[in-house]
Write a structure and sequence with these properties.
six-stranded parallel β-sheet, 14 helices, 18% strand, 13 strands, alpha/beta, seven-stranded parallel β-sheet
Length: 382
């Protein structure tokens, strides 16, 4: 076993760097991790570029130090860099943990200024279609591939993500897969909250509600979801659909127009961002991930399963591994395949499927496992 760099220290300073604390999968996983890491072992600081994120309040009054770097926009570089370096000089972290592309790259720059600091990267995606994103996203990924060998440890949240990044030059000996952890005390079945949200959305109990939770982004492939919804509406009248999440207004308008073109506008609820996600999952009869690329470990799938909701997912990232035999896995980018998955699910005992799904999350993807594996990595792998 590799000797710990920190064998003679009793408590260590670990600083996480992330773009924002807005509501997103990576952000929520960071929140879960820093709340549960052993505070007797780690002094924890979270540095974030932009203030005002919806998750900031969740870390107030905890033993986690929150520091906004107050970035003024994409081109606020000099002032932002000065504030970042000043904070690192003040904190003197033993461990510097980036979360996602630009924060990961910043840790390498900071390592040149603070060479005794050990650097960890957090990688959360796989099989990205960069044709759907801007030049900066493509550049950041190329730079990550070039500089990944300078990280001391790279934590990937999915098997698919590890494979993808290995194919693009990331060092195998520095990569470690630690799946996301789902808080099964927070995400759990509740008939009471199910009724409350369905009443809000005017969904009767005898109506089948199928939901997609995820930002409005090409990666999530809402068009396939909507086309499959239109096909199902031709076969059944007792179905409604909900999309939970936000995105760019231009892309959202394209999706609204597609729903109108498919003549299902009255069948689809666009719920926007929600802070009460356990209630939202409980309102669903089937949860769906229709992603066509880019997924690593899908929080939406794991959280829905923890709420005992059966899932129909596309075979992208680690989705099939998460679901295993508790739900249905279908080909991506095929509305016909997604329709077939829904019909199969509707023909089965969904209560039994849901109970089995929750058991899988409890046994294999708990917060306890996330924290234990992360702490072991921090102590023994660096």
């Amino acid at each position: 076993m590799q000797q710990s760099f920190f064998i003679n220290k009793a408590k260590f300073n670990i600083t996480f760097i992330i773009r924002s604390l807005n509501y997103g999968g990576a952000e929520r996983q960071l929140l879960t991790l820093v709340q549960c890491l052993e505070k007797e072992r780690f002094n924890i600081t979270v540095l974030y570029f932009y203030s005002g994120g919806t998750l900031e309040k969740n870390l107030k009054d905890t033993r986690v130090q929150l520091i906004s770097l107050d970035k003024g926009g994409r081109w606020d570089i000099v002032g932002f860099s000065w504030r970042l370096v000043s904070q690192i000089r003040r904190i003197k972290p033993d461990l510097l943990h980036g979360y996602l592309g630009i924060p990961n790259l910043l840790t390498i720059c900071l390592k040149m200024l603070f060479p005794s600091t050990r650097v960890i990267w957090g990688v959360r995606a796989s099989n990205i279609d960069f044709s759907c994103y801007d030049w900066l996203s493509r550049l950041v990924f190329k730079l990550e591939c070039m500089f990944s060998r300078f990280a001391d440890l790279i934590i990937v949240n999915s098997r698919a993500g590890r494979t993808y990044h290995l194919e693009h030059g990331f060092p195998a000996d520095k990569m470690l897969v630690i799946p996301n952890g789902i808080d099964t005390e927070h995400f759990k079945p509740s008939l009471e909250t199910r009724a409350k949200v369905r009443t809000e959305w005017e969904i009767s109990e005898d109506t089948i509600l199928i939901g997609l939770v995820g930002r409005l982004d090409p990666m999530k492939d809402h068009p396939t979801f909507l086309r499959a919804a239109a096909l199902l509406c031709k076969q059944r009248q007792d179905v409604r659909f909900v999309c939970v999440g936000t995105g760019s207004e231009s892309y959202a308008q394209k999706l609204y127009q597609l729903a109108k073109k498919l003549d299902i506008s009255e069948k689809v609820i666009w719920a926007g961002a929600r802070a009460d996600m356990p209630m939202v999952y409980n309102a669903l009869d089937i949860a769906t991930s229709s992603s066509s690329y880019g997924e690593g470990f899908s929080n939406a799938i794991g959280e829905a399963m923890a709420c005992s909701v059966p899932c129909v997912v596309t075979d992208v990232g680690d989705s099939s591994w998460i679901v295993d035999d508790t739900g249905l896995v279908v080909l991506p980018q095929s509305s016909e395949a997604l329709l077939a998955g829904w019909l199969t699910c509707l023909g089965r005992d969904r209560n039994a499927m849901g109970l089995k799904a929750r058991s899988r999350i409890v046994e294999h993807f708990s917060v306890k496992q996330l924290v234990e594996q992360t702490e072991e990595a921090l102590w023994l792998k660096v």
